[in-house]
């Protein structure tokens, strides 16, 4: 889960996916940092 709620299904279906892609990128970077830095725990 990326902890994101969007109420823009119509826009998403038309290809406007920037909000979702931005959230996915942030999540992926956070997960990579957690894996790279020992002792870094999820809040």
What does this structure look like?
The chain is an all-alpha fold and 43 residues long. The protein has one domain (1-37). It is built from two helices and no strands. The protein has helices spanning 9-13, 18-36. The longest helix is centred in the middle third of the chain and has 19 residues, at 18-36. It is elongated. The two termini are 14 Å apart.
First-last Cα distance:
14 Å
Supply the helix-strand structural class. Answer: mainly alpha
Largest sheet: none
Q: Could you tell me the strand content as a percent range? A: under 5%
Report the oligomer. Answer: single chain
Mean pLDDT: 88
Detail the topology: elements first, then pairings.
Layout: H1 9-13, H2 18-36
Structure keywords:
43 residues; mainly alpha; 2 helices; 0% strand
Quickly describe the structure:
By secondary structure, the protein is mainly alpha-helical.
């Amino acid at each position: 889960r990326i902890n994101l709620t969007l109420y823009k299904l119509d826009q998403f279906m038309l290809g406007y996916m920037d909000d979702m892609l931005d959230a996915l990128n942030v999540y992926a970077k956070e997960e990579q940092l957690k894996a790279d830095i020992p002792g870094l725990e999820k809040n």
